[in-house]
User: Fold these one by one.
Assistant:
Number 1:
Amino acid sequence: MATSAVMQSTLAGPITRVANKTSLNQVIPSNYASRIQRNTNLRVRCMTEKDRKKVLTPSTTPPPSPQLTPTPTPKVSTKFSDVFAFSGPAPERINGRLAMIGFVAAMAVELSNGQDVLAQISNGGVPWFLGTSVVLSLASLIPLFSGVSVESKSKGFMTSDAEMWNGRFAMLGLVALAFTEYVKGSALV
């Protein structure tokens, strides 16, 4: 506290002493830096909308703000090559949805029967996988080929980005589950 008071009194004085290696008592005037000119014509007022209407006279009313028309949503391409492009809306979304269903189904069967993922596939899991893949792919592609974007239907907590990240984690989880069970030689649970 005493140091703070000494520093304030030193810096607030008309001259300041600076100690450096060459001379211990070098005097620098406190007005060494140029002063910033103040604009006396500038005034800032905080007022409510009611007060603003009272202060403004008809000659000083601001011009009405232009009405903003909503920008039309860009047309989503429904071409097969655009929907199935590498960065298109279909490939990662469909694979992510299949991985989410596959991971949950693999864990449920593993908990109920004790079979690992590879045993589930070899014991009749292929028809279930193909049937689920066809149904889910068609259900995902019909809106995309109709011109409906996924982003237009996502609101609040369930956004399209959340679905993409959940699908990515499910893909990684399914591969990690199969690899772990293969290395371990038995079911995870």
Number 2:
Amino acid sequence: MSSGRSLGNAGENMAAAYLLEHGYKISERNYRCPIGEMDIVAFDGEELVFVEVKTRTSLRYGYPYQAVDYRKQQRYYRISAFYRASHPQYADLNCRFDVIEVYLPNNDTQNINHIKNAFEVGDNRYY
């Protein structure tokens, strides 16, 4: 496993623990479909939340959330639509897209920044 994938896995584990500590219920991790992958699918109360986790050791190339550009937002929207179509029990739930930034500048520190409603696509209702 590459160090980049190891870093990503560590960040996703920290993000999942963070969400659980804040009362979220995780439905799926690393949800894969023909369109792509979503790091975490969770519930915040009755709201369905699609979470992208971005982990960095420095800000050399910008803030992690900046990696979620328009093209990726469109893909995440399509993944969420596929997820909702394959889980019709969730079709009427409100949903949102969050980004969790995990900073791991060295082995002694970590910082998590949870950006709720990081972006919206369309009217945020798919059906």
Number 3:
Amino acid sequence: MRTVGVEEELLLVDAESGDPRALSTAVLALAERRAEGESVFESELHDQQLEFATEPRSAMGDLAEEILRWRAEAAHSAAEAGAAVAALATSPLPVSPSIGEGERYRWLAERFGLTAQEQLTCGCHVHVSVESDEEGVAVLDRVRPWLPVLLALSANSPFWQGQDTSYDSYRSRVWGRWPSAGPVEIFGSADRYHEQVRTLVGTGVLRDEGMIYFDARLSHRYPTVEFRVADVCLDPADPVLLATLARGLVETAARAWRAGEPPEPVPVSALRMAAWQAARSGTGGRLLHPLTLRPEPAGDVLQALLAHVRDALEDSGDLASADKALRDVLTRGTGARTQRELLAGSDSLRTVVTECAARTRG
């Protein structure tokens, strides 16, 4: 059974007004004290963010429990600092983000200017274990067409600087400003993958391998494939669904590789179209089908994804729960829909943020 881990980035906000608060240093110190020096929380590029990472898990129930636990712990530590945490991929309210402390963050701010300054975005990263770099690159080559579907499932960033962007995932549009972000070509081998990474770092545009921001990549820290395409999700059930589908995609791709089946030769330009469509409409409209690249109802494309990974999910015992979770998302919508419904009911973006913080706290 492949293990799965999830990293979530959370927004630090004022508990009453909903305004983003630059309190990561204080919250991290409080979290470390609460955990007696072994905190799972880390800083991010901006002081208005907090990140945690789960342990590698084989059972999705264990992963779900851990996500709930660390969201609650983050909320407790933030409350001690006079703030709250919200699982929002962008701030609905206007904000002037502040860059965090440390040489790396200062380098990013100087090197990338406004692009770095405006990157107050919160994502969800899913790590799935692989046996080798060769298997990992074979997986990357074969999951490419399905990554926009994961983006649509996670869409949770309709607002930016106080405005409705008309996108369900505007975070992905902002994140795409980094020079190494987005979909990539088929590599064919681990050697070619690593050669490409060395070439990109060698240009001097990127500081190091940690800035390889592909939609999915080999982790430079763990023996995993890291899916980086998703927004942080408002409903805590959704990162579990993402992890379930990501593991199914990895196992399905690895089996195809071992069977000698080649990856689908989808051009990067078409993948960019599919990612744009997923960011624009989420699960509420049409998506580009990964195999035909033609627009189809989102529900049909989600069912195509489930069918694609069905055998792997049956073998891991996750098929029934994944099927139910997919139907739940289609019924209630993603975080983007929830945020817009909250705004429609209150006519206040501040209420949107404070209600989402309450839901994050659980």
Number 4:
Amino acid sequence: MTALILENARIFDGSNEECAEGMSVLINGESIEEISDKPITSQSARRMDLAGRTLMPGLIDLHIHAYASSVNLQRVATSGHTYNAAHAARMLGHALDCGFTTVRDIGGGDWSLATSIEDGLIRGPRFFYAGRIVSMTGGHGDFRPMHVSRHDEGICQCGESNVFSVLADGVDECLKATREELRQGAHCIKIMGSGGVASPADPIWMNQYREDEIRAIVGECIERRTYVSSHCHGAEAIRRSVDYGVRVIEHGTLMDAETAAHVAKKGAYVVPTMAVIFALMEEGERLGLPAVSMEKLRSVFSSALSGMEHMRDAGVKLGFGTDLLGETYIRQTQEFTIRREVFEPVEILRQATSGSAEILMREGELGCIADGAAADLIVVDGDPLKDIGLLAASGEKLDLIIRRGEIVKDRLSN
């Protein structure tokens, strides 16, 4: 791979609001080798003049479901793995074109999909996956309609697992399920800590899993030097999850001020997912979201933005996620404009870069521009610190995208 020098760059490094002007960056292989305010000498490197454009770390989406080929998850279960994998390829390619050089599949993604990306069979971002979500029977990971019994065919494998989750009840089953997902390369383990929108049999307000079950899963992950992430909407579910050792809360939609302060004190993280809520409110019925799910969706929609306001006021550490299902994947960058209702552009940029890298336990490697960091970079035509909408244009304002040191989009050389 030929070395590459990016010249005359205005750098947002993933953290600092002040951007250095007139900078040069040397990429050698998959890493950043040198950053300088003076021209970098090289006889063999390719040179690209950014002409003052903003160079920043590649974006990170911490909450995707690559195999979610429909908003109706029962339909996903019967679509077949080939169909779902085809959707994943389309979705991941779109994410890369939007500037997302890293994603975390937090339910369903597996070793096979990760290897397909690594080997170049599928065009996509770096791919972290949590494997199948660990859920209690009747929890948010149990998508069987209420009339379906344990051994009805066509919905799941005897009620024990589906595309996105595995059902486990009691400490021993939870330990076995956790160990199996970690054995298959899961980056972390996700549990269902509350009711959810897409599942038919559990109210949003329902707390899920007992303390001993959650602590057992957390303990197993600590032994593997990783962490537990918990799907939670309600405030009580959030509090008990972090009290029992969960490191990351997914959604946190019904967060109140007291709970936000508690989460911040505990040092836990939250990954809000606004894009999916707004997308399904607008398109859910048309796309086949069941009526029971639409009803639950409406119950959380009105509190979504105020929940993020409580997180902001309490100083909760936040990541960036979208959670888009089916055809709504094309709305991935709308998360930026929705968050703009609550946060300043620099806060959102940190959430989508260095903050998310910290959640991935990859700080200093991803989500930053620094010596020795990964060469995952995007070039923005304009200043996203003033106009976050530049990142909300589905890649239209990105002139260059680099993943692992390889140029995957180039409008500067044309």
